């Protein structure tokens, strides 16, 4: 399998771009990003299992859940803030 | 940003050469027209004036998407697309992604073993969101690119590997290794891993004991090998053990690499699947696939009884699932004695391998081609009849 790694990298790269735009005050991709973070929150809390999250974003969801499970369990899914986005960015860069 | 302009200049060169491409079907043509719209938008941009790093990244993603798309389409024009093979792959694809719109395109590679798959345009939906939000252009259909060795186009014995390559698309589309890996890791941490896991993934015990399994190196190896096992199983649903013949010839039996498990293990897993045997590793993979995709890993070809190839006649295919069986049928004849063909057709001289190779490939291609013509005709006729009724 030649491409899986680069595809994952590419997905992370565009998701990181969306986060950076949100942090800079541009909300164009807020719906897409928040949907992923709500899935990570639900997975971390146990209110969703792995087979119920967004299939197209599962690699990002698993990565965030593995690196910040406790943090994501505590975020407020109905009010995701800029400081949340900044923290998510650190998980992806870590 | 001058480098964005360089990127645009490169794609302009490609576009100028390809903008008048003609395609055999409307979906490729429609995709091409969307690219035209996108090109016209990009042409209006003052790319050198963009300084915001996020905007640069967005434009870069759009330019990369454009170049990749046109490069894919360039090899799938009316003269280059091996449409009989693509038809069989589309039937398999539709079983796994019914309701989603994809276009299989092919690219011809020079090396004889260069079968591969490029999922970059079909699996990362964020790039489409960027295009939509920047230019309000919607690409409803996504391109899946499969690379075929140029000299093996029309070689239906070797092309069974394309089913494995299609498996890579499904694998990446659904992030299948991530999901199966999580199942294995959960069992590993709960000490529920069974012995045969270590047969299929021997490097875990040999190099990554205890917590070593969680190292990036081990996780990457596991994901890659899980992906290969999945693609082998995926392919065997359609063409049984046909890939094994070719695989065992072109690869070393006991060689384990960063990209592939040993051929011996790959064949072992496929055979146990085809023989309905149960094992921890196989059952875990089947369970995760079912949970995640709501699809069973199961035999998906339909067997026909025929002596037609022996009589040098194409098979009259009755059901689309029989198309997959043509590959199995072709392999079964190749692997046996060709005396029957000589006798049936009263041949004076013994058949030589290159002739049988040519005959089998022609017959498989004609069988698929006839089915395509027949079903296309039936569809057109039934549409006409429906229109008359209305």
Features:
heterodimer, A: 94 residues, mainly alpha, globular, disordered N terminus, B: 390 residues, 3-stranded mixed sheet
Which secondary structure elements does this structure contain, and how are they paired or packed?
The complex is a heterodimer of chains A (94) and B (390).
Chain A: H1 4-23, H2 30-45, H3 58-74, H4 82-93
Chain B: H1 2-18, H2 26-44, H3 53-74, H4 83-96, E1 102-109, E2 116-118, H5 120-123, H6 126-135, E3 142-149, H7 161-173, H8 176-189, H9 195-200, H10 202-207, H11 216-239, H12 242-250, H13 263-274, H14 280-293, H15 320-335, H16 339-344, H17 353-389
Parallel strand pairs in B: 1-3
Antiparallel strand pairs in B: 2-3
Structural description of this entry:
The complex is a heterodimer of chains A (94) and B (390). Chain A is mainly α and 94 residues long. Chain A is 69% helix and 0% strand. Chain A has helices at 4-23, 30-45, 58-74, 82-93. In chain A, helix 1 runs antiparallel to helix 4 and helix 2 crosses helix 3 (58-74). Chain A starts with a helix and ends with a helix. Chain B is mostly helical. Chain B contains 17 helices and three strands. Chain B has helices at residues 2-18, 26-44, 53-74, 83-96, 120-123, 126-135, 161-173, 176-189, 195-200, 202-207, 216-239, 242-250, 263-274, 280-293, 320-335, 339-344, 353-389; strands at residues 102-109, 116-118, 142-149. In chain B, strands 1-3-2 form a three-stranded mixed sheet, sandwiched between helices. The longest helix of chain B has 37 residues, at 353-389. The radius of gyration of chain B is 24 Å and the shape is globular. The relative contact order of chain B is 0.08. Classes of the chains: A mainly alpha (94), B mainly alpha (390). The interface between A and B is medium-sized, with 28 and 37 residues.
């Amino acid at each position: 399998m030649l491409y899986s790694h680069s595809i994952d990298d590419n997905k992370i790269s565009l998701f990181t771009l969306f986060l950076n735009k949100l942090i800079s005050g541009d909300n164009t991709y807020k719906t897409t990003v928040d949907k992923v973070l709500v899935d990570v929150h639900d997975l971390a809390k146990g209110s969703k299992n792995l087979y119920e999250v967004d299939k197209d974003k599962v690699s990002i969801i698993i990565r965030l859940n593995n690196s910040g499970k406790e943090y994501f369990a505590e975020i407020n899914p109905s009010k995701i803030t800029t400081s949340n986005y900044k923290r998510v960015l650190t998980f992806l860069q870590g | 940003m001058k480098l964005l302009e360089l990127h645009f200049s490169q794609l302009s060169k490609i576009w100028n050469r390809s903008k008048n491409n003609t395609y055999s079907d409307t979906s490729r043509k429609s995709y091409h027209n969307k690219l035209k719209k996108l090109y016209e938008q990009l042409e209006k941009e003052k790319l050198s004036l963009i300084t915001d790093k996020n905007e640069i990244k967005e434009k870069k993603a759009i330019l990369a998407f454009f170049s990749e798309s046109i490069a894919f389409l360039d090899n799938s024009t009316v003269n280059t697309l091996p449409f009989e093979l693509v038809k069989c792959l589309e039937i398999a694809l539709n079983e796994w992604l019914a309701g989603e719109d994809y276009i299989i395109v092919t690219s011809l590679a020079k090396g004889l073993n260069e079968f591969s798959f490029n999922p970059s345009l079909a699996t990362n939906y964020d790039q489409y969101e960027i295009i939509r939000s920047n230019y309000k252009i919607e690409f409803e259909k996504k391109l899946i690119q499969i690379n075929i060795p140029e000299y093996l186009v029309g070689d239906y014995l070797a092309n069974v590997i394309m089913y494995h390559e299609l498996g890579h698309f499904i694998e990446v589309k659904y992030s299948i290794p991530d999901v199966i890996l999580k199942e294995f890791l959960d069992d590993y941490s709960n000490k529920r891993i069974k012995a045969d896991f270590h047969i299929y993934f021997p490097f875990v015990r040999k190099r990554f004991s205890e917590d070593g399994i969680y190292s990036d190196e081990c996780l990457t190896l596991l994901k890659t090998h899980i992906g290969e096992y999945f693609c082998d199983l995926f392919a065997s649903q359609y063409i049984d053990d046909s890939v094994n013949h070719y695989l065992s010839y072109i690869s070393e039996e006991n060689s384990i690499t960063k990209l592939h498990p040993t051929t011996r293990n790959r064949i072992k897993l496929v055979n146990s699947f085809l023989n309905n045997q149960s094992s921890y590793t196989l059952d875990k993979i089947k369970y995760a696939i079912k949970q995640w995709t709501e699809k069973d890993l199961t035999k998906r070809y339909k067997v026909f009884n025929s002596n037609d190839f022996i009589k040098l006649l194409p098979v009259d295919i009755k059901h689309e699932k029989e198309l997959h069986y043509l590959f199995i049928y072709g392999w079964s004849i190749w692997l046996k004695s060709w005396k029957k063909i000589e006798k049936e057709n009263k041949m004076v001289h013994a058949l030589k391998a290159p002739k049988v190779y040519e005959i089998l490939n022609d017959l498989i291609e004609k069988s698929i081609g006839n089915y395509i013509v027949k079903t296309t005709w039936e569809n057109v006729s039934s549409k006409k009849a429906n229109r008359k009724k209305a």
